[in-house]
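ARCHIVE CARD
CATEGORY: sequence design from structure
SOURCE FIELD: tokenized fold
FIELD CONTENT:
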């Protein structure tokens, strides 16, 4: 087993509800701590991830009842980054060599500059991310996190946001870049920066609760 067990807290109601999904939507009266009950979420990072962009969204997922696993290219510990210096170290639950996308229901991609810049040059990481999009599983990425999405070829035809310096990369990859605190497009949730984390968390939990999308559904963009 992947050591996916994490403690759970409770979370506020979701921000958006999807309509083009496989299976029933989560009931509006579902208790906050059970919105993601039974969902397994991979949190893909390597050294240099923006710490608050991992810990804040991961806590929101755990609070909603998900089982999260920190996935990294190497075993042991990964180091966070706190704006201008190294932060805390966190234990890796499963390495990319061991992790299989079919063991997870959704994917979280924190930002930071070093983290996605390293991951997008790691073929195992790019394949891992691409597999979620190929399967229609929901993905959430914040700040520089969409760099790996661009590398996986999954930005094409989608509307998303990110740290502003990624605008040209997104556009060159065939995506549409917008300046909003959170954007949801066919299961992909994106935000720009740490200040957007509250909105990002609400949209992420809502999308992850809906499950995978059917291939070929019309483009759906929600910009709260």
């Amino acid at each position: 087993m992947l050591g996916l067990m994490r403690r759970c807290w409770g979370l506020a109601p979701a921000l958006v509800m999807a309509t083009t999904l496989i299976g029933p939507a989560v009931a509006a009266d579902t208790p906050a701590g059970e919105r993601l009950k039974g969902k397994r979420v991979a949190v893909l990072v390597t050294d240099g991830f923006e710490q608050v962009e991992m810990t804040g969204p991961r806590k929101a997922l755990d609070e909603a009842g998900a089982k999260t696993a920190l996935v990294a290219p190497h075993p042991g510990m990964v180091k966070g980054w706190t704006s201008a210096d190294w932060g805390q170290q966190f234990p890796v639950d499963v390495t990319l060599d061991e992790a299989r996308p079919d063991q997870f229901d959704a994917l979280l991609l924190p930002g930071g500059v070093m983290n996605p810049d390293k991951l997008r040059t790691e073929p195992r990481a790019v394949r891992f991310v691409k597999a979620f999009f190929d399967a229609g599983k929901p993905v959430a990425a914040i700040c520089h996190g969409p760099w790996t999405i661009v590398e996986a070829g999954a930005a094409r035809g989608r509307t998303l946001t990110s740290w502003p310096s990624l605008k040209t990369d997104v556009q060159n990859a065939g995506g549409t870049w917008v300046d909003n605190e959170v954007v949801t497009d066919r299961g992909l949730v994106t935000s720009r920066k740490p200040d957007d984390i509250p909105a990002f968390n609400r949209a992420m939990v809502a999308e992850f609760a809906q499950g995978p999308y059917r291939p070929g559904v019309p483009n759906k963009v929600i910009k709260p």
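CARD ANNOTATION: The helical segments are 51-63, 114-119, 123-134, 146-151, 167-172, 197-210. The CA atoms of residues 125 and 192 lie 22 Å apart.
SHELF: design records, drawer C
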